Known about the structure:
Serine Threonine Protein Phosphatase 5, Tetratricopeptide repeat, about 0% strand, flat, 5 domains, mainly alpha
Amino acid sequence: MLFWILAAALAAAIAVLMILALWRGDDGANVPGNTQDLGVYRDQLKGVEADLARGVIAPDEAERLRLEISRRVLEADRVARGSDVAGRAPRSASVTAAVALMALLAAAFGLYARIGAPGYPDVPLQGRLADAEAAYDARPSQAEAEAQAAARRGTPPAPDAQVVALMERLRAAVAERPDDPLGHELLARNEAILGDYHAAWTTQEKLIALKGDAATVADHVMLAEWMIGATGGIITPEIESLLGDIVANDPGNGTALFYLGMMMAQLDRPDRTFAIWSSLLARGPESAPWIAPIRRSINDLAWLAGAGNYVAPAPVLPGPSEADIAAAAALAPQAREAALRAPVEALMAQMAELGGTADEWGRLISALAVLDETERAAAIWAEAQRVFADLPDELARVSDAAARAGLPGGVAAPRGPTAGDIANAAALSADEQAAFIEGMVARLGDRLAAEGGSAAEWAQLLRALGTLGRTDEARARWAEAQAAFAGRPDDLATIRAAAATAGVAE
């Protein structure tokens, strides 16, 4: 109510002042020829007469001054007479402006009453913290949260009859052998696949009890994830307690820390969520499942937490990059081992725990091939075909790496203009050539400069640059290729032939 009183008082005061200004108009105080000027000019005339009497000025000069001052007196008198009319707006215009002003103020109040929050109280920081604490204490229990989530989801679609029959047999088998850990593990996973997260986490809980001290952190993380699935994402006190135990045994566990940060967001504590999630984002790795959702919201969280200058760290790819692999391929075997062994083993360990992207699978295959570990690379390629069987685009990227590593079944993806493309472009006009091949050449050149590439790809680039008449660029690329393939005479010979075609080598 106090807000409305103050707002109305301020609006009324402003309206009254504006209406009075319209009503009175200009009082002539700032008009250059007003009545005050007339008095000044009369005094000047008296001064001229006095100077003439004392002989200070000549009669001709006195006459000239009289005429000038008289002209100014007439002008000032004219302006003074017309100032009232010129300075005051017509009465009808003043009334119209006053009515429009009042209507505008009334509309502003009406609009705020409709779309604003006139009754919303002030929310100081201490009040928000108190509300967050109250929300923390008032969280529903696991059972209550699951009941609320079930009501929101409604009745799930019925599964296939054959699946139902198989699940009934599995449940019966577990009931007959209640001490079988493998049966409980299979049942828990399949219950989760069917979307019955309550049955999944209760079975997982029994599995952990059966394992006793042999239960792993991963077992407890899976239990927490299925409990969260059952509540529709709400972190209940029971889940918080479980997450706390996980962090106590594994302080760096990213999954548990992510969910604890999510709990703080649910309690309107973005400052605490930002502290947890920004640390996870900085630590990586980029392929961790919690990184993508954190990246989507970290800037908003930073703003809400008061960290307006926060800049999210750039993604860091785990393991050796394409450029690292290409550079290592040119080294002696012992130096190659020193350059690639540690990052390759780190990438394998991470992928074993968290999985990996198609690019990571491809880089791992390429690195193992460079290390002459063909059997391991073939095993990784075989596993990748199973992992990405339903993802053809991702499988194509891994297949490209397998093909370049010389593994059977791999299919190399086109990575630059082919010889046919270049031949076709040579028969076109200059403008048509640019439209046809410029984009492919630019992409190939940028990739080779950043990541390196095979001798065939460097040769493609040089031939394309020669066809486009970009001799200076071809010469610079030929110099780069000579440095990159200095210890590989066969590859360098291939590139030299293309450079000669481009007119930059003999």
